[in-house]
Design goal:
four-stranded antiparallel beta sheet; 10 strands; Rieske Iron-sulfur Protein; three-stranded antiparallel beta sheet
């Protein structure tokens, strides 16, 4: 079983904000974390509309202008921050793939062992 992987401290993230990570050294961000208030969620960096298309057009650009939705800049799809469900765009009825996180009392965010092997 893989140990949890430290990603970021909450103090290092904007609120609302998002940040991409490459926990396994793939050479590109394979996942991203979204913070909105006390809610913190992680998603696989792949639009469900078409294969494994990365979501951001530049580093850490995963949210719309006001931070209320996740956006795939390749397809203009918009996703709910909480559920990952597609709300607008070519992938209605589909969702992002959520990854399991653990946030400890010190505000450290970890990718949990069950998802630590996800590319």
């Amino acid at each position: 079983m893989n140990p949890p992987i430290f990603l970021v401290h909450l103090d290092a993230m904007a609120d609302p904000g998002a940040r991409g990570f490459d926990p396994h050294g793939a050479g590109h961000d394979t996942m991203f974390v979204v913070r909105s208030g006390t809610q913190v969620r992680a998603w696989r960096n792949a639009c469900p509309h078409y294969g494994d298309t990365p979501m951001a057009w530049r580093k850490d650009a995963y949210l719309n202008h006001d931070g209320s939705r996740i956006v795939c800049h390749a397809h203009a799809a918009q996703f709910d921050l909480v559920s990952g469900a597609c709300l607008a765009g070519p992938c209605l009825g589909q969702s992002l793939t959520q990854l399991a996180l653990h946030v400890n009392a010190q505000g450290e965010v970890f990718l949990v062992a069950s998802d630590a092997g996800v590319p």
